[in-house]
Structure formats: C-alpha cells, structure tokens
Predict the 3D structure of the following.
Amino acid sequence: MQHKIDGIGQGLQPFGAEVGAGHRPRHSRSKRVTLIAAFRTKEGIAICADSQETVPRDDGYEDRRTVQKIAPITTDKYQVVIAGSGDAALIEGFIILAERRIKADTDPASIKRVLTVIEDELGKFYVRHSEEITAYSIKLFIAAACLTTKEYEVWVTENQYLRPLRDAELIGYDATMYWVTTERLYQKDMTLSQAVLASVYVMVVGEESSNYIKGPFSLAVVRENGIWMEDSGYIDTLQNNLKEFEAYASQILLACADSSIHSSALQAAIERYAKIARTIHEKHIDLIANQIFEKDPRTFMSSIPKLPLGLLIELSPDGKPRVRHDVNGIE
C-alpha cells in the first residue's frame, strides 16, 4: 500500500452536477481541509468523504460550512465522480470544465477514452491556473464508469496526470492516525461491503479526532454497473453501528492479549462478546430492513448487498417489516 500521499445508500440517488463557485477574493478563498478515503476490491471501489469546508475570514478566524465534496456528473455514456481536497474554487472550476468536455465528447465510449478526455482537460487547467495551483494546490480522486462496456476505474491526480488508485488511499487531512487506520483495515480479499465499512470507519476516526473533519459523510460505490451514491440514512446507520461495535471490540482485544487471565476466563469473555455482537448485528439488520421497506421494496436498487441472502421478512398488516433472524423462521 502506498503511504503518505500529499494532500490527503440505502438506494440509488439521481446524479446531478454540482454548482460551481464564482470568483472569490484571494483573502477569502475557502479550503477543503477534508478527508477522503478510497478502498479498492475485486468487486468495486468505495469512496467516502466528509462535508466540511473552511473559509478564512478577514479578522484571521475561520468559518466552517457544509458542502457536497463528491460531485457527480452523468452523461448518456458515462458516470463520473470528482472528489477533491485543496482550494475549493479551483476544484469547482475544474469540475465545470471536466463536465463540459465529457458531455461534448463524441468518440466511442470506453474507460480509456474518458481517461484521455479528463487528463487532457486537467493538463489545460494546470497551464491556465498555474500560479493559483502553485499557491493553493489541489488533489483529486476521479471515478468513472462506462455502462456500455462495463468498465470502471478510480484515478488519483499527480499534478496534471492521473494514475489508477492503489489498494487503499487517502487525500486531504494528512494525519498518520488515518493512514495507520486505513492500512489496518485494508485486506487484499476484502469484499466491497467491507470496503464501504472501512471507508466510513476512517471518516468516523477523523471526525472524532479533528475539528476539520465533520459529517454528514458522502459515500460513492463504483463498480461495473455504474456509480451509486448511498443514502445519508444508510451511512448514518453504518457510523452508529461501527461505533457500537468498536467499544466492545476494544474490550475483547485487551482480554485476548492479557496473559494474566486464565484461558477459561478468556473463553467466557469471548462467549459474552459473541452474544453481544449477535444482538448488535441483528439490531443493525432490523434497521436496514426498515430503511428498505420505507421505500418500495419492489423497485429497491442497491450497489451492494445490505441484507443476508435468504433472510425471512414478515410484513404486519400495517406494512411494518419483522425480520426472522433464525435460519428456518420458526424460533
């Protein structure tokens, strides 16, 4: 895994272009002191970003505002997401130009073609704004999916060039803690669902340890069937579930490593944790099932599996779901 790179839903939501910012006076340009995490798997790629932007004030203090840092673009051939850290005006300006180029392109669709178009536009942008970029700097994740060819990729900017995302990377607030967390979570054989959880967990650690990283979080899942923006309610559920598990996981970690306790005491602690973990897991499944049934389950679409295969769910007369967690549905 590459280390220390500079800089850093519940259902399908419609794509829409982010509105770009106009000219800002130099002293008040906002900076995306952000954290964005991306994890690659064999099934696809998960990208999660926080939503806080820092705006310097004339009096030397800073204001914070919430922005959508994952900016989706869609055309009849491509779906593209650009997520960036650095000067907000430069990032928003490039998003506008990239969208124009992608929508105007008439060549046959392919992931290689969209790479060529975006990299060419990025090179022109660097030439046009060389002084500003030198002063403020930007770093981008750029994701693209070509539905007709079932291709997808996520690239990372290296100045005006693009390279494919490595196993798991961060851009934005470059703290060692977040890199260590990312490296501990990443596994070569992890599933896409686990990559989603890992990317959200990095954000949770960031929010708990820095005033510059705040939710709500945005989550994009990139795979052969397109780019999916996850619902905010689903992301909140993942956050809360991860925090709840973390407290108990820390206890079992210390118990397992504690050579001063008898093995029978460790076994009892593990059994207690197993019961607690199952209870939390089932509660989480219940929450997700209710979120799904708040929508129309007949038209529900999702980027990743959110419930176990073959799970039995009963509907009460008022339409509320009841999950049967036992395999046979008879407990």
